[in-house]
Write the structure tokens for this entry.
Amino acid sequence: MSQVVNLNKARKAKAKSSAKAKADENAVKFGRTKAEKALTQAQAALDAGRLDGAKRDP
């Protein structure tokens, strides 16, 4: 015979593991340092300036 499983504990363990996976995913997605964010913003501003400078007047 199999062992008895407490369904409440199993449900909570599953929820905890899915929350941990979501937290890890968000850490990768949004976990950038302040310097990395500033570098990205500076590069975007530089790219926008180059694009505006290359426009021709109609």
